[in-house]
Amino acid sequence: MSSQLEPTGTPAPSTDAAQWATRANQAARSVTRSFGRRLLFLPGTHLAAVSLPGTTLKSLSGPWHYWWQAHYVDCLVDAGRRELADKKRFDGDSRPSAGRLASRLLTTIRLRNLLRFVNDYYDDMAWLALATLRLEKLAEETKKPGRRRNAYIRKSLTLQFDSASTDDFGGGTFWSTKRDFKNTPATAPVALYYARTGHTERAQQLVNWLNSKLLHPERGVYQDGVRMSHGQVVVDNAIYTYNQGPVLGALLELGGEENLRRAALLVDAVKRELTLPGTDVIRGDGTGDGGLFTGILLRYLALAARDARLPAAARETAKSLVYSTAEALWTGRRVDPNPVNARKGTPAIVFSFDPQRPAGETYPAGTAVELSTQLQAWMALEAAATL
Questions:
Q1: What span, in angstroms and rounded, lies between the C-alpha atoms of 269 and 301?
Q2: Which of 90, 119, 259, 374 is surrounded by the fewest CB atoms within 10 Å?
Q3: What fold is seen in the domain 17-385?
Q4: Closest by Cα among 178, 63, 152 to 112
Q5: What does the pLDDT look like over 121-147, one tens digit per residue?
Q6: What is the pLDDT of residues 132-186, one digit of tens each?
Q7: Which residues of 49-69 are buried (b: 16+ CB within 10 A; e: fewer)?
Q8: pTM for the complete prediction?
Q9: Radius of gyration for the chain, computed over Cα atoms and rounded to the nearest angstrom
Q10: Domain ranges (residues) in the chain
Q11: Distance, CA of 175 to CA of 168 (rounded, Å)
């Protein structure tokens, strides 16, 4: 394995769907076996540790990271969809299916979140709502209808989104219950959620607001948000990779000539603005929350790559971005020579949080590994496996 990825490119990415599925299964096993554990040893619970190595006390007293768990649900749904297609479980017949783990995880999120699904951040709740929708659809396709819990989550969180999507600042969705900042991280996934639940008018209003307030006119990507400062509306012009993903998803879900035109332009802008020089590899955004960012964008680029309504050039660009970034993350992985350690709190595979640098450099042996960064790589491999 190379110790350093060249800045001018990475190995030619595989386009073999079966190979990507195998890789995704390896990532799924690594994350679920090493990070996954019961909550307070309670039977039937499942939650991911925030970092490894770690302890039960540390996981309960440290940061909660609700939205990392929401993306863990999404990754398990990805694995569940492959299980459905392949007719075999990602981790062997003797272990729970991905869908079963995702269902346990949803229940455990509520327990860990003080017996509720509501929290202080509307973007966190939107990610969980989107993951729940996908899990419910998987349950229907596997002829294991979702429980009333899923309907309760939708009803409860929809009320939150309705209250946060106001006319303040001309529209959009508040980021938190402080209600002083409206941004792409909340507005875009809420718009996507509305679109997927049949509230297309609300979804389109939010997309229109994003286009009018936060779309950078020259760069073609979406800026972070707007807030009130000294009586003036001020734009936070930071550009984050993951913000582009749910906007792209909402545009595709809504469809129509203008939304699809904008989606194709956004794919091109991502390639132009957010890739490493001379490559189709999307940049990384570090650790912590940023450790999820690139993976989230790849999830929605994969949708664009498969959408026949988009121009062929845009689909090919999206496909190349997914394959190239996933290949870089896979090539840079660090493999534990003793896989049994995964059961002792060390991941069997460690993925770098930076596609340009190998995990041996970003996560040397013995250093703490964050869940967010491993979910990101898993998401990337799942995205590639859908192509």
A1: 12
A2: 119
A3: Glycosyltransferase (1.50.10)
A4: 63
A5: 999 999 999 999 999 999 998 877 656
A6: 999 999 999 887 765 677 888 999 999 999 999 999 999 999 999 999 999 999 9
A7: bbbbebeeeebeeeebbbbbb
A8: 0.94
A9: 20
A10: 17-385
A11: 12
Show the 3-state SS of the chain: CCCCCCCCCCCCCCCCHHHHHHHHHHHHHHHHHHCEECCCCCCCCCEECCEECCCHHHHHHCCCCHHHHHHHHHHHHHHHHHHHHHCCCCCCCCCCCHHHHHHHHHHHHHHHCCCCCCCCEHHHHHHHHHHHHHHHHHHHHCCCCCCHHHHHHHHHHHHHHHHHECCHHHCCEECECCCCEEEHHHHHHHHHHHHHCCCHHHHHHHHHHHHHHCECCCCCCEEEEEEEECCEEEEEEEECHHHHHHHHHHHHHHCCHHHHHHHHHHHHHHHHHCECCCCCCECCCCCHHHHHHHHHHHHHHHHHHCCCCCCHHHHHHHHHHHHHHHHHHHHCCEECCCHHHHHHCCCCEECCCCCCCCHHHHCCCCCCEEHHHHHHHHHHHHHHHCC
d(CA 102, CA 74): 8
CB of 247 closer than 8 Å to CB of 188: yes
**Type of residue found at 296:** I
d(CA 75, CA 71): 6
Q: Which residues contact 381 (CB under 8 A, 6 or more apart)?
A: 20, 23, 24, 27, 326, 329, 330
Q: Checking DSSP bridges between strand 51-52 and strand 232-239, what pairing results, if any?
A: unpaired
Rounded Cα distance between 5 and 264, Å, is 29
